[in-house]
Write a structure and sequence with these properties.
By secondary structure, the chain is α+β, with helices and mostly antiparallel strands. Among the domains are: 224 residues, FAD/NAD(P)-binding domain; 123 residues, Glutaredoxin, CATH 3.40.30.120. The protein is built from 15 helices and 24 strands. Helix 13 packs across helix 15. The protein binds flavin-adenine dinucleotide. The site of flavin-adenine dinucleotide (FAD) has 33 residues, from helix 1, strand 2, strand 8 and helix 8.
Length: 538
Amino acid sequence: MTTTIETPILIVGAGPIGLALAAELGRRDVPCLVIEQSDGVIYHPRATALNARTMEFLRRLGVSERVKQDGTPPDFPHNVLYVTTLKGNEIARIERPSHGARTPSPISPERPQRCNQLWLDPILVELDKSFPSVTLRYRCRYDSLKEENDKVIVTAMDLTTETPVTIAARYVIDCSGSHTSVRRQLGIAMTGAADAEHHLSVFVRAPELWKQHEKGKAALTFFIDEKGNWRNLVAIDGRELYRFGISGKEFYDNPDAVDVEKYFTEAMGGDVPHEILSVIRWAARDIVAEKYRVGRVFFAGDAAHQNHPSGGFGLNTGMGDMDNLGWKLAATVQGWGGAALLDSYEVERRPVGLRNISQAFNNHIDNRDRVSHPDIAKDTPDGAAARTRMREQILSSQPAMVLTDGVALGYRYEGSPIVCADGTPATADTISLYEPTTRPGSRAPHAWIKEGQSTVDLFGKGFVLLRLGDDAPDAAAIEQAFRQRQVPIETVTLTNPDIVKLYEKKLVLVRPDGHVAWRSDTLHQDPLALADHVRGGV
Ligand SMILES: Cc1cc2nc3c(=O)[nH]c(=O)nc-3n(C[C@H](O)[C@H](O)[C@H](O)COP(=O)(O)OP(=O)(O)OC[C@H]3O[C@@H](n4cnc5c(N)ncnc54)[C@H](O)[C@@H]3O)c2cc1C
């Protein structure tokens, strides 16, 4: 006999996206259950680079300071190095300051940070546990589902007691990563480059590695050899932990036969004190699910899109899914979300998935010359010339891979059914540059209201109607219409001339996820229709 657990929302998978989504629901007092097949311990590091938008979400969740504390030390530079070996020749470098050494960012209250999932996931677990409405259940594996009337009936397995568990949920969110069985069972295919690259990832401890060579600290080091191979070393904690990457199908196919010590020592340019902690293999793909929703089941994070890690877009794109879906699920469960609100998730997020995945694809496919460079490591005039040519090539293409403010902050919800387009032309959508705008669908821009308080901090629970300037129209009618539909809304008046200019219009309506829903210099003619439009009312 199994008892059925009832929950409005079941999240499958306690990776960073499932955990963050649970926190997003938890802080809105929305009940949810997260099931995770593993014991939650991370044995091998994956994502490290958190972009400014992810940091804004973590700020909203109240843990951004903790992430900074537990991540890479603030004085560790984010530099990217291109070398033949660590003790050999430098080919190029892209200087990026440490997050502690920069002047305040003009585009976000937060800067990109380096905090590996080894520390990020436990912070999110602790956060989830602080919310009474969130239940985390480890060693519980999702097995199958069926939709019945207005419920999804999930069969799972408690792996500790080896007993089946039945869960009845209004909605299931598949956050179970690239190996998702939920999406596969529902027959949703992925499109894109399914076989982009094959890798071995070597987790290694090398205390104060920078003291073993002359090139200084770097967040990311690429080793380029005579045959055109690119290997890499990612600083995980800025102290002693690294991930060394060896790419090639031959290594992936037969990992046990690979002399990892030899390749690591070669890249270092000789012996350095180190200890190999673990080796895994992984295949890079640049693919996006054909659908982000099937009935009452939604896909988010790696279950919906997977990309090559160059550029660090994977976790960050998933966090955007979480941001978009969190308030819509809460609104639906709480009863103020309209019938079409959840439909907008796929319309808004799938294009962002396609955009970011194509950027990641370009990063690792187009920007690298894999032809051989026989002289590259030689201390001869030919060697120097080969390195100069390579430097020029790297500096013309690689900065886009590591300077990604446009990807992080410039995504927008074009053509969304719950955004009121105003016919203004779109701002440029580039990988590196972010152009602040309140054009509907865009992220409402950052500006400091006072020390420590950003405009971004105003958003996150209900809608916020910004009145900008002393002459902004009285917007009581809009607030009243939203209240009539039980939609949470707050009106905030800002008169700082810089913010008034930045926000472009006198009235800007911002959604709970911080994206602009509507803007105008005059009051909306039909405030109730506006409320219905942006809450997905039919
Ligand atoms: C080498 C490498 C480096 C990377 N670096 C970066 C980076 O710097 N920045 C970045 O943004 N991204 C990076 N990524 C990508 C990033 O790791 C992923 O995008 C991110 O982990 C996805 O999170 P997720 O929560 O969607 O899925 P996952 O982290 O894969 O979590 C899914 C969870 O679901 C669980 N699960 C699976 N099946 C079931 C089931 N049947 N029942 C219950 N639980 C289940 C799994 O055990 C797992 O815990 C990197 C990836 C790799 C491989």
